[in-house]
Design goal:
Number of helices: 17
Helix content: 25-40%
Structural class: alpha+beta
Largest sheet: 8 strands, antiparallel
Amino acid sequence: MVGYTLSLNGALGEAGKKVLNNYLKETSFSRLVHIFHTRDEKDNGWRCEFWGKVLRGAILLNYFIKDEEMEKIIDETISDMLSAQKEDGSITSYPADKQLQGWNLWGIKYVLAGLLRYAATGKKHDEIAKAAELLLSYVEELLEKDGKFFPDYGMHTGLPASSILGPVVGVWDLTGNPRWKKLAEKLILSGCSSANNIFDEAAKGTLPSCMGNGKAYELTSCFQGLAEYILTAEKRNEEYLNDRDYKNICFKYFRLVCDNELMLTGASGLKDPVGEFWFGGRYKQHLADAGSLGETCIMTTLLHYADRLISLAGGEYFTAADAAEKILYNSLLGGMTPDGRNFTHANPTPLTGGGWKKPAGDQMMICFKVPFDGHDCCRAQGPEGLAMAYLLALRVLEKENNVYGCVVNLYENMCAEFPNAVLSVSGSYPYGNKAEIKVNSTGEFILSLRIPYYTERVVLNGKELPFIKGDYLKIKRSWSENDLVEISFDLSLKEVSAPGDPSYTAVKRGALILAEDSRKKDVPEAQICEEWKGHFLVEYSAAGNMFTSENSLQVFFKE
């Protein structure tokens, strides 16, 4: 999956371990697969998504954490799911007469996502390749018989069904079969929505809320699939569609999201009671009547998308890495219960006071009055979001398949081993104001450092280095165990006005957004406690961590 080992030993790494031990290892994957054996999901629900969603997070987390018990659970559930495939190639939880209804195509997408993630670890490559091709052939035959295409099916102007684009690209990459490249291209040319061509709209600079029906998670998943298509074509040295500047479209969509939708805490999504639509969130985040603030599904998908854009940019894309850091250390960590067993569906609303962190409930019980082991789409996405921290923290720079350097995007305490170098980061970032980096290499090795806007100094072996804030600093040398890079950060409090109403002010400290907990000073989980204008502020991720309505928090304060 990656050509190095990496351990994260700070806040994100510890959160990932809690999620793996207290959530993922306690999940009954056999229950999640059972519905694919019985095929009795007759109410047009989305139970079909949970297996793939939960599993892919488990696989990626465990790829780095390496827990033997978790590995056995993963191996067993993959075999179980493969045994659910019928002779016609189908793997589905829906009955025969509902194959093109509800969320079934979306569910098939997540079956493929889970299988492909497992194959990426090097296991069951041929068996999964065969199963995935049979499943996609089955889907193609369904569409051909009905005479329609993905944007014509399911909810939200076809965006969920069309977001199968990413797994289609994954099957092409896994098998090399040009049939799946052709299917991916047909999907891209369709525009992925029955409302409008979302890629054309991004090219024109249309607001994200006006692309498709503005359903943020599914819309972004389609753009993620487009980015994966370009990356796969480049990796395979194959031509890709050139009727539009698709690479620029990928970056433009992300800029549109950052400019119009990304909130101070890294959350995104508004409009409805569970925060699932683009709705001008950047300018409405201080309001109490604009819907709930930002589902975890959107945050995780934006982390995925940031990862793809960093790859498209050759390993260094400051805007994406900066947004990812904001999401990871604020809204994602802040949305996790302290034991790692659950996540919020939407972030606390409103941020102007009275909002509280509510753990996700049993979504099937809430929507269909039939319980399903406490599963919720956002709870299922939390592990994947934390797993993405490993891919985003460190990027390998390669030349002709040889590692010749790395990019450090996050300064969490970590250790990484490459074929030709060992790297360690210490300093308790983002709470501490320094990061110390040591590299020991067998030859010349490039260390590329993301320079946040609050960086004060970068020193190599006592010598101060020049840098540009909001960019990367490359240090190219043969490294010894005595070499030391020291980065100092300005973690003084900074006031930030709400973009939609400057009379509201929030406070940040480096990468962290601060909040006032209703317990005031008594927040035992907090790493930071600052007094500001009579308010006692802690990091957003610690505020409200009792996850009860009595434990509210506040981010924006009226001047």
